[in-house]
Design brief:
The chain is an alpha/beta fold. The protein has 4 helices and 8 strands; from the N terminus they run E-H-E-H-E-E-E-E-H-E-H-E. The termini are far apart.
Length: 153
């Protein structure tokens, strides 16, 4: 059974490399929102029950109470929806690929394009930019937060 690996770190090239490594191992990722206080992070980790957490110092911690995910699951996005209680929205490799292909087709994306991630990768909007860049082979620049000065070419 596949495992859920929590990535508790800002958006970076290392984050993307860990996503790809996790996927290569047949596991799914749970990006943790870096804007949350420790209590909020703990609530998400308790609700999602990953098998491992990798933090911003690249320290890996195994958890004994981790819940498996289904084969083919790629991404779990934590959402409170309308109830305020954390729930996991599961995206499969197939659904991420279909979304990336649809965007690439509609926007006529190629490997010549360059993507900027400056919104949280713990939300599907931010993570989808990564998926699109990986799908098309486009260049990818990642910023941990939005900064108008840093985003200038």
């Amino acid at each position: 059974m596949a495992r859920l690996i929590a990535l508790d770190m800002p958006a970076s090239k290392t984050f993307v490399n860990l996503v790809q490594r996790t996927w290569s191992n047949g596991d799914a990722v749970l990006p943790i929102d870096q804007r949350l206080p420790l209590g909020g992070k703990k609530a998400i980790l308790d609700a999602m029950a990953p098998s491992e957490i990798i933090d911003s110092s690249f320290t890996s911690s195994s958890l004994t109470n981790g819940h498996p995910v289904q084969d083919g699951d790629a991404l779990v996005i934590a959402s409170s929806g309308s109830t305020g209680s954390a729930k996991g929205i599961i995206h499969t490799h197939s659904s991420l690929l279909a979304a990336a292909q649809a965007s690439a087709s509609r926007l006529q994306l190629t490997s010549d394009d360059h993507w900027l991630v400056c919104i949280p990768v713990s939300h599907v909007g931010g993570f989808s930019v990564i998926a699109r860049a990986l799908h098309t082979g486009a260049a990818l620049t990642l910023h941990p937060t939005f900064d108008a000065v840093a985003a200038q070419p």
